[in-house]
Amino acid sequence: MTGTDTVPFVAQVVWSPDLLGYDFGHGHPMSPTRLDLTMRLVRALGLLDAPGVEVVGTSPATDEVLDLVHDPAYVAAVHAASEQGVENAALGLGTEDDPVFAGMHEAAARILSGSYEAAGAVWSGHALHAVNIAGGMHHAQRGAASGFCIYNDAAAAVRRLLDDGAERVAYVDLDAHHGDGVESIFWDDPRVLTVSVHQSGATLFPGTGHATDTGGATASGTAVNLGLPRRTDGSRWLRAVDAVVPPVLRAFRPQVVVSQHGCDAHGHDPLSDLDVSIDAQRTAVRWIHELTHELAEGRWVALGGGGYSVTSVVPFAWSNVVAEVVHAPVAPSTPVPVAWRDHITAVAHRETAALMGDGEVAFTSWGRGYDPEDEVDRAVVATRKAVFPLLGLDAHFD
């Protein structure tokens, strides 16, 4: 299938077993097993058989493409680390978070290429939506690795859209950790709105993403940061997302949306302190999808990201992302395919959930009132006060 004239739409799913090569070694949280198990579940649910789905592989990006979002000297250092084992802690290469491994450059460049090309497919009209669950490497800086991220594919996707002619691109990051790399790369670019909903930088890596961080001098109001307190649960998380994300997107009116769906906000995740259920995250994915159709004629590039509860969270959360992208949402009451559950038992020696959801989540909309005693509400107020006036929005909270 080569275009949108043969089916109602084309949803591009970036996937190849080659993407499993991004592997920092045994014991590292960023295990490629999470990708393998996700795609096994995606296939078992029949999501790749939905009408209009196009599965595409990807090759490593060229240095010319990498240089669009990274310093050439840094790219050269990654080559040296990958090919000769040269560590460079000053550039984040050879640290506990980002240990050097053979083939590092090719593996990271392949992920970046997947998101870069997906963005091109969406902007050209070949695909309406695209998803790269291996992507979402949002911590990588222009000149350094950081937080398990070597090359910043999310930034590359945004850059591709700008270079292809987009005038307003929204980047929405729902990972438990602040999307600092993408924000910093586009800090002074008024064409890019970066929105990050994360655990407060006061209590979690990378320590950034404060409400008062609202963009550079030439792009004031185009960085939106909502840092939430520890143990924020799904209903309060959804309330916070709803109070900030739709209003700022509607004010910015993006022509295309890139979203990052790190699922490490879940209560089972070992690397964050939030408590956001799979079903709450599923609801947020649906909201992003609906906003793309409302504001951007459906143009949407969805990415993976963090998520380190490998068997009990990641495959479920990201299968929901893929399902939303291909217009085949999976109800929380859907039984988990027996063959997939048997595979988990065989490889991980543990039982897994019998249903795709972990309980529907209700939330109270912001319009129903503000509780000054609630930490989440106070975080929302801080963000709205800091950035809403810059976007021409009313920051009222009473």
Automatic annotation (TrEMBL):
Say which domain of life the source belongs to. Bacteria
Organism lineage reads as: Bacteria, Bacillati, Actinomycetota, Actinomycetes, Micrococcales
Q: Does the keyword Cell wall biogenesis/degradation apply?
A: no
Q: Which PANTHER family match?
A: HISTONE DEACETYLASE HDAC1, HISTONE DEACETYLASE HDAC1-RELATED
Tell me the ranges covered by the Histone deacetylase domain, including all copies: 28-322
| Alphabetized SUPFAM superfamilies for the sequence | Arginase/deacetylase
Protein name from the UniProt record: Acetoin utilization protein AcuC
Pathway listed for it is: Ketone degradation; acetoin degradation
Is the keyword Thylakoid in the record?
no
Keywords (A to Z) from UniProt:
Acetoin catabolism
Give the UniProt family note. Belongs to the histone deacetylase family.
